[in-house]
Amino acid sequence: MTFEVNRRLVAPRAPVPTGAEIDAVTASILRGAFETTCFEVATHLGRCASSAIINQSNERNGSIMDAHGRLAGLSVGIPQLLFISPLSVRYGLEHFEADDWGPGDVFLGNDPEHGGGHLPDYNVFAPVFDELGKLVAIQALQAHQGDTGGKDPGGFSVDARELQAEGLIVPCVKLVHRGERRRDMIELLVRNNRMPSFAGDLAAMISAVELGAERILELCGRYSADTVRAAINWNIAETERRFRSEVAEWPDGVYEATVFIDHDTVGNPDVRVQVACRVAGDQLTVDMTGSDERPELVCVWNTFSNSRGYAMAQLASMVDPTITKNEGLFNAVEMIIPEGSILQPPPGKPVALGAFHPAVEVGEAICIALSKILPERSSPQVYKLGMPNSVIGFDDTGAMWMDQGVDVRASDASATQGIDGWGAMCSGLGNLILAGAEEAEARFPVLNLSREMTRDTGGAGRWRGQCGTRNVKQILEPSSAAAWMVSKRHPLRGLRGGDDAGPYGNRFLVGTADEYEVENAVQTALPSGAVLAYQYGGGAGFEPALDRDPNAVLEDVLDEYVSIEAALARYGVVMAGSADDGTLAVDEAGTRELRAQRAAASE
Q: Is pTM beyond 0.85 here?
């Protein structure tokens, strides 16, 4: 039944009927109004929500669908949430009559098997009707929740064998009827959530989409509902035209890539994501056939909506950024996501961790494949973190607290053509804001001991990946912790001959006789004073390291991104003198000779 639902939800949808004519300028003005509205809706949530994961992190995304469920506008957020709202809205639209849709209504869905992302990603949406009672658009808001009511706090269960273990599954429910809150449904959701802040978060989501619905209604009053519909049709058609125009400039051919996840949460190794990008004229086909289908895999199943959305997030980054993000992108691309694979799982599979992996591997594989023809636009919109160290405890009143481990870090900031990896935030995290030391320590009984970049963890290349970070944290009260470690054997892949990034790593009970490295999934009790050390992988390199300017390598050594030993071993750069006394310099003759030897050996 899941596959039938997915086929139905992604079926192409016609333009909405309208009698209005529209010009490009008016259509663009309304497109901008939609994007501004979505930004305002997401910002409203951030300012009104109660939990840190929403009001501090920006892990949210606003979008607008038309009356047929086509994506009409959005605010650009993190790739994970960018394109996943439409399918759950479409499922709601299938029950338009039975659920008595009307002005002032608000709905919620999170079901992975009815168009949703993973269970923590709640999609709240409000329909907008014109003066004749006809549906114009739907304002939606997707946001990650701190808990789902599942068997483990936070919704991430490293040993879940079924979807029901991960939390409360909501295909589609009405939260507000004609402007009146439904106490029964809201109380049901709040009662099934461990987070004391959840009631405030849900109230903020409802009020945010109601605000968005008001803004859309104002546009209908100013321009007419039919003109708004015409603008939606025009902008979607224009996005498809521009995307296809770019693809038509690419060389025809099939461009493939295979990437692996180290293992699932019980140790099944080398979980595979396979992508073939076929270019034929102005038609791009992304075929994920060959991706893993082993039924015994545990917790590496991604939702269909998320696989589809992550693929488009990567593709949208590889074309002109001024192309509007809407349904036209999906109209221009054929996606083949094999039924029964980890990217479109059979019914009942747990999918919470799939939003990390294999979701990011979809984007990574597309980037690797198309980097062969689009080097100037190849930046992986991904992070290779498996699951951060989530630490959970209870305060004196019995209320649960949870440090979800989304701390400030440098990780996965890869190089691109002409630009070294820089800063700390990789492009795959978009506008996500990670927790600062002071903010986390004020909320939770933890002490952040250090957050230091780790030398030699950036992938070597003509353009160098940024280093990763080693984050060391002490737990001040007895608690429990959970994590899933990957990207140690299969870190972020280098592009066009660049080296892979440094691997991830994680150690518990650091500094004690019981210290150990987390090799895969772990759920364990921690004593007061326990120290955890998480090594985040760096960014990958771009093009061969032997092509890097030796003087740039010297600067990397002086900046402590690269050691003198790695300069020699990875870049073929011979150094003379000492950094301590300021005499360190490139031995140009020795460097030329060494690089020539290595080039000859590689032929």
A: yes
